[in-house]
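FAQ: What does the model actually see?

It sees only this:
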Amino acid sequence: MSPSTQLPEDSLKRNDVKVMTPTATLSNIPLPGTVPQEKQTHLSCVAKIDEEYGKEIQNNFRITDERNQRPTELNIFPTKQPYIPYALAKAYITKNDYSSKIKTLRVRFEAYQEQVNKKNRAWKDTKKILEEKTDELMQEKDKLLLQVNQEKEKWEKEKSWLLETFAQTLDLLHTHHSVTVQKLKATRLALENIQEILKFPNVQKNESLSSEKVVSWISSIEAEPEFTDAFEKGISKMEDQRNLLLEEKIRRALELLEKVKQSLQKQESEIVDIIKNGSECRGVDSLKSQPPGC
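And it is asked to produce this:
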């Protein structure tokens, strides 16, 4: 400070100097968290307080600067703090208190929201995994259903084929049975004919014996030689014809026997083939029905 602005120490000890407390209320204790925006809102109030403060200093101390005749401030108070009305300070403190509470609630809410989001992400991941497993199971189910349907169609075709083959085999066996019965009847008739033919030599033998008796009788009655020769020739001719007829019948009997033999052999081979084919079909079916690896 300049010497002109300094007060002499004896002036402070004078009795006519009356020290008075200013009427303006100044705050030595700073309020927590003074808000500049609120100060700017009440600039008129702050300016009025400064003006009253300057006038009271001038009236009470009568200290002026010799150059500009303005009161000189004395450093008798601590650093001046702006005045804030009680209602505004109370509102600010309340606001600050609620702001801290709101911040605490916000922090808690954010923590809770984080937990909820974490749980939601976990549930979404679980849902996604379950959906993927469900899709896999559905695909496996579709594959199994398709495989079952294919196996079912395959077994239906095999069953139809087996039934058709069995029916054809039964029809073939029935036909062969009917043909065999007819052939057996024909064979029985042929055997009866052969038996009749084989009985013929006994008759011929009896007839030959009777002819010999006739010849001996004719010779005993001393007939004419010419008649006897002619009769013997006729008898021999008849015997030759009978022998030829007997040979023809025997040949026919042998032919019938050969035909019967061939027919029986053919029937036997057909029956053997049917039995063989049936056993092969059963073997193929058994191989189809066996599981792989057996």
